[in-house]
Structures are given as C-alpha cells and as structure tokens.
Design goal:
Layout: H1 2-15, H2 18-78, H3 81-84, H4 90-104, E1 108-113, E2 117-119, E3 126-127, H5 132-140, E4 144-145, E5 149-151, E6 157-168, E7 171-181, H6 182-193, E8 199-203, E9 209-212, H7 222-228, E10 231-232, H8 236-244, E11 249-255, E12 258-266, E13 273-279, H9 280-335, H10 345-350, H11 366-379, E14 383-391, H12 394-401, H13 403-423, E15 427-430, E16 435-443, H14 446-459, E17 462-466, E18 469-473, E19 475-481, H15 488-505, E20 510-514, E21 518-522
Parallel strand pairs: 19-20
Antiparallel strand pairs: 1-2, 1-7, 2-3, 4-6, 5-6, 6-7, 8-9, 8-13, 10-11, 11-12, 12-13, 14-16, 14-19, 15-16, 17-18, 20-21
Helix pairs in contact: 1-9, 2-6, 2-9, 7-8, 12-13
Length: about 525
C-alpha cells in the first residue's frame, strides 16, 4: 500500500508542478516588464532626433512667418504715395495706420518722419533719434528687425520692432515700423514646441535670451547655461561662433542623467537664432501611459494563460488519478489484493480511458510511455534497447504535399512500430511531432539487435499514395543499449546521440550507441 501511495505521489509531482509553473509565470512577467521598459527607452531614443527636428522646424517657421508677414505689410504700405509723400499731413498717415493695425493686431504701427520724429494721434511728436536701431535704419536705408527691448509709455514694456524706410526718388523721407508684443512671441514658441514636449529659446544678436518656454532669465547669455550642464557635446564658445556665423546644426547635452538633444539655426530676415531642445525624460514620460497599457495587457494575458494552464493540469490530474484508481481496483479484482511482482501494465493501459494513446498513430502518449518504460527497465534482465525513430524530411513532405500526406506517413510508421512492440514485448510512444520512441526486449545479443534494426529500417522505407502520386518515405533510427546501471534519462540521451550522429552523416539508416563508448554507424 505504501508503494502505491509513493507511486501516486510521484505522479502528482510530475503532473501538477504548479509551484514551478507559477515561478515561470512570475519570471516571465518580470522579464516582460523589463522588455517593455527597454522597448520604451529604445523608442524614446529613436524618436528624439525626429521630434527635436520637427519642433525646431515648426518654431522657426512660426517666428519667421510672423516677421516676414510684417515686413511684407510694411513694405507694401511704404510703396503708397500717401505715406512717402511729405506733403500728406502726418495726422492722415497716422489715422490710416491705426485703422490698419486694428485688423493686424500689432502693439502699434507708427509713422516716423525724415527727422526721426514719431507721430501719434493726440500726442506731441517724440524723437527717436537717440535709439540705436533708428540711427542704423536711417544710415543703411534697409529693412531692420530689432532684438527685444523696453519701450512704450512706461518704458518697461518689451517688444520687437520691424522697420522699413520710406523712399522717394532714392531719398529717404521717413520710415514705418511695427512693434510685435513680447508675449506674442513667447506664445508662438510655446505653440510650436509644446506639441512635441520640446523647449524653445529665442536668442538675440548678442547671444542673449529674448524669449523662452522653460523660464530662462530674460537677457542672460544662453551659453552660460551650457557651461552649467554636466555634459555638452559642443563647447559654448564653438556654439556662439556658429550662431554668429548664421549656421544651423545640433548638439547633445545632459543635465545629470537626463540626456538632451538640441537643434539650432537662424531666423530668416533677422539676426535671431532659435534653439529647440527635447530631453529624454520628458519624451519618455509622454509614452509612459502606452507602456503601462502594454504592461497591463501582457499581465492580463499572462494571468488568463496561467488560469488556463492550471485548469488543464487539474483536468490531467483528475484523469490520471481516475486511471490509477481504476488500475488499483482492477489489480484487486485480478489478484485478490495479492499483487505479484510482474503486472501486465500494457494490458491495463490498453484497457484505460481515452487519452493515453496518440490519436493519429495509435501509440502511447509521451507521458504514459515514460511511466511504462520505468517499469520495463525495473523488470528487465536481458538485453534491452531504446530507439529514437525519426521521420526524415517531414517539413519538406508537409510543405510539398500538405499535412495530410505527413499524417498518412506517421500513421503507417505507428502501425509498423506497434507490430515490433508486440513482437519484442516492448513499448512504443510518440515522443514529438515526427519522433517515436521504441523499447525492444527479449533480444539475445548485439548481432541479433543489428539484424532487427536493419530489418526495421527497411520496413520504415516505403511509399505512400497521395493525390495520384507515389511519395518515398524513409526513417532514421538512433538506438542505445541499456547497461542496467544507467537511468531512463541516460538511456534516452544515448539514443538521442545516436540519432544525431546518423542525421549528421546520413539519413534512412540506423546508428547504435553501446556502453557509452562510441557510436557505430551502419549503412
């Protein structure tokens, strides 16, 4: 009774390794999480250049468009006689400019006369002759875009000024200028950069910060911030030289462990530069919700799979327990509780329920074969051999003629092996898709064994008829002789080595592994 209980417990351990399976699922879950995390890192790094370049192009286009459309408006107004003719009263000019500005929404559009006096309705003319940018405009007589500066009635309101000369017969008779709100430029930068989780900075002609989306101090020198970074791919002096020479490019930097990529380049028709940066952490956080969703879906799929596997294991356990109970009852009926040393387990297995034999070939399933093989080894005193039988080129057969042709071949191989199982009081099972495992007993010596293997190889070389075609079938056999000291696992490994040797050198024959010394190949 104790022996039976031990056998049952061993079967439970083999059939129901839930703890091991649970550990596998936990490890798989942890590995999956890190794979998703690494995937997110890889995607983020891959996107950084594309996102940074896109944000830079967007920000540069937004600022350039606002500057260019202002220059175009002022140039078209400067071509009208009502603005460049000195005889037209300044009140009339200013009134028209105020109406135009109501539509375009600048801080203001103003008229300046030849003496650099600016006019505003209801106020006395004011001199702008002291302003450096107006002196440059009247000296060069070319369009001018200023850096940001403080202006307005309060003297502290920041703005950007775009001015064009009023020309009459090659003589400068005044100018028109429009001032863009400082906050409007900041808003343009934010709209262009924030979509891509980027930060944008507008740099003036002297390298000073004029506008930024990340709270950098107005008027400070941008390259000073680079000197404070933990890593910068380009030196601040080199960057300053490139900005002054109106070059475009990119560089990498880092603040602590957070890598950053920056694109920079000039703004058309100005002395400004735009720098747009994307840091790894901000971009990674933007894809984090997707990564978490993927992780949750994988976890859910893993849980569902575990539940399915556990249910399948419990079902198999129930079947095996029922089988063991049936066998024990049958033993009692046959032997009246006096079970002899040798029991015809093959007969008992043949009487068992559905599921113990392979449905296609009729041989034992792998688990049942292995359990039965242990019994055969325990009772065997004579020469015993275990064979791996492998159908040659099953994949080619299936790919060429279809799986039905492969099934026909496997079914016939199973029939041949069952005949040898009966003849030599052994056992046969299906080990894998195209592999069978066969035990032969009651063999006198190695010479008889070689004769049996040679005969079996010939039997396993046959033709099948399928779709009006004759298809040649052959099998390879790797055999291992049991030396009564090795375990079943060692015997299987020896036969597998023999099969490997025959597959490596040839097919359609057999190889014999004897006493763990060397492999004998036979043609």
């Amino acid at each position: 009774m104790n022996k039976k209980s031990a056998t049952k417990n061993n079967q439970d351990v083999y059939i129901l390794p839930l703890a091991s399976i649970r550990r596998v699922f936990i490890v798989f879950g942890i590995v999956s999480f890190f794979i998703v995390l690494l995937g997110g890192v890889f995607v983020t790094v891959s996107r950084m250049r594309q996102v940074t370049l896109s944000a830079y192009q967007n920000a540069s286009a937004q600022i350039s468009q606002r500057v260019n459309e202002t220059i175009k408006l002022l140039t078209s107004l400067a071509a009208l006689p009502e603005f460049y003719e000195p005889e037209v009263p300044w009140e009339e000019k200013v009134a028209k400019l105020d109406k135009i500005n109501e539509y375009y929404g600048y801080m203001f559009i103003c008229y300046v006369d030849q003496d650099i006096q600016v006019y505003t309705l209801g106020e006395e003319p004011a001199s702008l002759a002291s302003r450096e940018h107006m002196q440059r405009l009247y000296t060069t007589k070319t369009n001018l875009v200023t850096d940001s500066f403080a202006a307005g009635a309060d003297g502290v309101t920041l703005n950007y000024t775009i001015a064009v000369p009023l020309m009459k017969a090659d003589e400068m008779v005044g100018s028109l200028f429009a001032s863009i709100y400082f906050d409007e430029t900041v808003s343009l930068l934010k709209d262009a950069a924030s979509v891509n989780e980027a930060e944008a900075v507008l740099i003036g002609s002297k390298g000073q910060i004029m506008s930024s989306t990340n709270g950098l101090t107005y008027g400070s020198i941008y390259t000073d911030y680079l000197r404070e970074a933990s890593y910068v791919e380009i030196s601040p002096d080199s960057l300053e030289s490139m900005l002054l020479s109106r070059e475009a490019g990119s560089f990498k930097s880092a603040e602590g462990l957070n890598p950053k990529l920056t694109y920079y380049g000039p703004v058309e028709n100005t002395n400004w530069d735009i720098l747009v940066s994307v840091d790894f952490l901000a971009l990674f956080m933007s894809v984090l919700p997707i990564l978490l969703l993927v992780t949750v879906l994988i976890a859910f799929a893993e849980i569902m799979l575990f539940i399915f596997v556990r249910k399948h294991i419990y079902n198999q356990k129930t079947i095996v327990e029922h089988l063991v109970t049936s066998i024990q009852k049958l033993e009692k009926k046959l032997y009246h509780d006096d079970v002899p040393e040798s029991v015809d387990f093959e007969a008992l297995l043949n009487m068992s329920s559905k599921g113990l034999h392979d449905g296609l070939t009729g041989v034992m399933t792998r688990s049942i074969f292995l359990a039965h093989a242990e019994k055969l080894l325990g009772n065997e005193q004579k020469l015993l051999v275990l064979c791996f039988v492998d159908l040659d080129n099953l994949k080619i057969l299936n790919d060429t003629h279809g799986h039905q042709a492969g099934d026909i071949a496997l079914r016939q191989i199973g029939s041949i092996l069952r005949a040898y199982e009966t003849k030599y009081e052994g056992a046969v099972g299906r080990y894998g898709g195209d592999e069978f495992i066969l035990i032969l007993r009651d063999i006198e010596d190695i010479e008889e064994l070689k004769s049996i293997l040679a005969e079996l190889v010939k039997k396993l070389s046959f033709n099948i008829s399928y779709s009006n075609q004759e298809i040649k079938i052959s099998c390879s056999i790797g055999a291992g002789i049991w030396n009564q000291r090795d375990s079943l696992e060692t015997l299987i490994a020896n036969a597998d080595k023999a099969l490997y040797e025959i597959k490596r050198h040839d097919k359609g024959t057999y190889s014999l592994f004897n006493n763990g010394e060397e492999v004998y190949e036979e043609s």
